[in-house]
Amino acid sequence: xxxxxxxxxxxxxxxxxxxxxxxxxxxxxxxxxxxxxxxxxxxxxxxxxxxxxxxxxxxxxxxxxxxxxx
Length: 70
Fold this sequence. Notes:
Layout: H1 11-18, H2 22-31, E1 38-40, E2 43-45, H3 48-65
Antiparallel strand pairs: 1-2
Helix pairs in contact: 1-2
């Protein structure tokens, strides 16, 4: 019986994983109305699908701004 434990990340952990500032991740979550899949105490936690969406939105924003490496 090997059930996979879902990996849930906080805003700070997502920012660290993606290598961006926390306020950028928080902005994307707020402006794109990305809902957390739950809470861990006072922290919102997000699943892999949400992290992927946040990363793609950050890339899209960078591309729209013409930032290098976007």
